[in-house]
What does this fold into?
Amino acid sequence: MEPRKLTRNQALVLETLTHAEAPLSAYTILDKLRDHGFRAPLQVYRALEKLTEFGIVHRLESLNAFVACTHPHDHGPEKGVIAFAICEDCGQVSEISDPEIEDRLAHLALKRHFTTEKTTIEMRGHCGNCTAA
Amino acid sequence: MEPRKLTRNQALVLETLTHAEAPLSAYTILDKLRDHGFRAPLQVYRALEKLTEFGIVHRLESLNAFVACTHPHDHGPEKGVIAFAICEDCGQVSEISDPEIEDRLAHLALKRHFTTEKTTIEMRGHCGNCTAA
DNA sequence: ATGCCACACGTTATAGCATAACGCAATTGA
DNA sequence: TCAATTGCGTTATGCTATAACGTGTGGCAT
It folds into this structure.
């Protein structure tokens, strides 16, 4: 699933997200890439879809926006659940990978005979820096 | 925060959600209420905003849709985190309130000096009934 | 090389979700 | 009664996402 090489569009979208300091919406990405020939939302959405599959971009459901993965290691499609802590002041997003939560959710699901395909955990609030300031 | 009485619009929207067997989008609610005089999305969104504040309706971020709260007790604005298990086959949503997850998330946030305002936990998958069938 | 296949791409159009801004009406409480 | 607050209705608009169509390109087996 992890590709040898990204296509031009995928690379451009990823680069845009990587350089951003906060999550970006698809349309914001589109605007940033107009100079590189992007004209339509689908160009962005298609790239985002692949990058998300590859596990190097995450979608934040509560924002309808996307971030580049900051986990140093292990790309490739989602081995585990990732929780996001999203600062509403500065936009900073930190990724949290926690086996305890994962196990607990798995337990709760099992108890209900629920088969989980995909899990979203997002905390909205204020990071340490912004709280201090 | 919990109101003595709902307005007409709020009551209609809540009733629609209560009778639904799956989460409804705002526009779906609008369509169902045209016969009752609803004409514009804002009528629905305004009601939903209040009902959500009251804690008797929940928004599902990963669906852009809304459900009536099924917790028997304790309405009123969110004392705790609620996790949702959403069946992609039948649309059934079950609400899970689990102190362990809550504590663990609180711990993880604290460790990062992150102040949490609102937490979203949504599991997408298949309920027992649908898996059996 | 030829033909085929899979995949990315570009474009247009459309669908679906959400809110801004205005003014009026009803309710409440001093 | 008056003022303040809240809800309401309407119009307009903006943001988010996908459908459907056709083109181009690169790999690869024949």
User: Anything to note?
Assistant: Helices of chain A lie at 8-19, 26-32, 41-54, 99-111, 128-132.
